[in-house]
Amino acid sequence: MKKLNNIFFIALFFLSLGFVSCDSEEEQISFKPGENLLISGPGSILTYEAGTFNVEGYTIDESYSWSVSGDGNATLQEVAGRGGEFVSIVAEDEGTYTVQVSNDVGLEGSVTFSVETVNEFLGVGQDTLRLTENQYVSGGDTLFLPINISERNIFETTADFNVVNGTAVEGTDFEVLNPTNVLTFPAGETQAFVQILLNDNTSLDGVRDFSITLNNILTTGTKSAAVELAPDSLELGQSVIYISDNTKQANLTVEGEEVEISSAGNFFIDVDLTAAAEDDVTIGYSVTDANGTPIPLADKTGGVLQIFEGETSSEIVLDIDEAWIEEGATPTELNVELTSITSGDEEVLLGSLTSFKVIAGPTE
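Structure for Calx-beta domain-containing protein, as requested:
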């Protein structure tokens, strides 16, 4: 019986140690060690950016009370599903803030962090565009000129823009399709667009330009500190848009400056436009000998070419006389030159390659 009592007391002793050990382990997890609770969180955040703070080594079933104070407005909210030991804090103003927490057994802790305000950004996505009249025209594509705001667009933001005529004039050279000159960026959205159509006229006007500039910054909600300082803290911008005529050029499509031939019959010289004709094109040309005298019998297309709407080429046809290539004949020089060009849209010009020499003679 005495032996059994001894075994009982020994078992009770080890069981008691087990309780002490568990209690001690829980205390170390909870207090880590010291008199205050320890809090973990970011050292600095941006205005309106959420920062998460938590009690390190918390003990299950403890209750926590949180508060935040500092140089401006700040709010905190418990993170769902984390037993009250995590909170999310958003500060509206820059400065220094302190988060405090206490538990239901009288322990407390705190952490200090700073809040910075960064400049919001609002600018034109493309500061220079070079276009031709036939781009972004009615019935085709619309130019969507991007206007970008920073990714920290917390509230719905509006920005108005101005159309500044240069040598290009609104209503004549281009149209802006936005119903008003105000762009809206919903909360969290970072891009809006100025919609532009170009007008393809029928005269040569050279390169013209106009500008889209950004103006006042407005918000429908509470303004961040950066927006409050607008326009000083906002990078406003502009886009300059250049419009070129929808010109096309006509060139002889040949290799080199001259060619020697030794066979009679038709000889073809292509004339190509750099883009399809938007109206019928008429090209005048001449065929002359070495002295500049016309050789009408050699010209089978009669000094005039037609390139019709939608097409890009035509060809000059020369008739090489058999007498020019007979043995012992003196080579005949035929100088072909484009001399004039007209079109319904007045936007077709002679290019840089407009003359070519054909030398017809016997085989050496």
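DSSP finds three helices and 26 strands in the chain.
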